[in-house]
Specification:
The chain is α+β, with helices and mostly antiparallel strands and 305 residues long. 27% of the residues lie in helices and 26% in strands. The strands form 6 sheets. The protein has a 6-stranded mixed beta sheet with strand order 5-13-14-15-12-16. It has a 3-stranded antiparallel beta sheet with strand order 3-6-4, with helices on one face. This is Renalase isoform X3.
Length: 305
């Protein structure tokens, strides 16, 4: 199971203190407002989304766009859809090979016994698909391989900082895009952005690095990278208190910069048994892109099952 950048981390000392390490807010484009309206309406009605009203300095809003935040963290959206699906979800199982066995797919992971399935949907980054071993590696056609190889991603780090209850971070904004620092691109006072400030829960802050910094330091240890980010953060926000806990996240495959050409939201690798690829590699790296790909995958499945 891959949740990707819809990732919310909790403080190890205070479970009520959370920070979004990936997507910071959800943008609904006017082009997709009608087609995807039912998804937004449902999430708004359930309180899983609400309009972004906190000030984000440097944010560019295009005409007709609407921005939303997830009060319970962006991972709450994924949890909602998983619960609705009734799926038996297993985390921490990295797939390493996929083989054909008696007209079914045998999926093997780094740990545990192989399991067999009638159909498989891949949503991992395209480079991970190309790294899979087993029969699947030989079943991908040259044309499909070129499509997967054409997908490119940006890389960056995110650093979450958790503070003790009562800590004050005195800035006039909830988020800020930074243009003058080689390391830091975005900062958010996460609880302020989501309008969930409480005297009983300390504030949380997230820092996203620039892509050049991420690329340069991608193979460095997260401990070393965290120290570099904290040093730069001191120059941007001098005098920040010492955090009670931190979480440094490496995003090797952050956002899609070039999606697979001519994939139409999905890429069917095999028909019987069915094997299809979906996700932002075949659309774009935002919530609308996720919905588009999911709908395309469902339509492909309906044609072959």
């Amino acid at each position: 199971m891959r949740r990707g950048r819809m990732c919310t981390a909790c403080s190890p000392h205070a479970p009520g203190s959370t920070v979004d390490l990936g997507a910071q807010y959800i943008t609904r484009s006017p082009q997709r407002a009608g087609l995807h309206g039912r998804f937004y309406d449902e999430l708004l009605a359930l309180g899983l989304l609400k309009p972004l009203t906190s000030p984000i300095e440097g944010m560019v809003v295009k005409e007709g766009e609407c921005n939303f935040v997830a009060p319970q963290g962006v991972s709450s959206i994924i949890k909602h859809y998983l619960k609705e699906s009734g799926a038996d979800v297993c985390f921490g199982h990295r797939v390493t090979r996929v083989d054909l066995r008696d007209d079914r797919w045998e999926v093997s992971t780094e740990t545990g016994h192989p399991e067999r399935f009638d159909l498989v949907v891949f949503t991992m980054p395209a480079p991970r698909i190309l790294q899979l071993q087993g029969d699947v590696a030989n079943l991908i056609s040259e044309c499909q391989r070129r499509q997967l190889e054409s997908v490119s991603y940006s890389s960056r780090y995110a650093l979450g900082l958790f503070y003790e209850a009562g800590t004050k971070i005195d800035v006039p904004w909830a988020g800020q895009y930074i243009t003058s620092n080689p390391c830091i691109r975005f900062i958010s006072i996460d609880n302020k952005k989501r309008n969930i400030e409480s005297p009983d829960v300390g504030p949380s802050l997230v820092v996203h690095t620039t892509v050049p910094f991420g690329v340069t330091h991608m193979e460095h240890s997260t401990e070393d990278v965290q120290e570099l980010i904290l040093q730069q953060l001191e120059t941007v926000l001098p005098g920040l208190p010492r955090p009670a806990a931190t979480k440094c996240q490496r995003w090797r495959h952050s956002q899609v910069t070039n999606a697979a050409a001519n994939s139409h939201g999905q890429l069917t690798l095999h028909v019987k048994p069915f094997l299809v690829c979906g996700g932002d590699a075949f659309t774009q790296s935002n919530f609308d892109g996720c919905i588009t790909s999911a709908l395309c995958v469902v339509e492909a499945l309906k044609k072959h099952i």
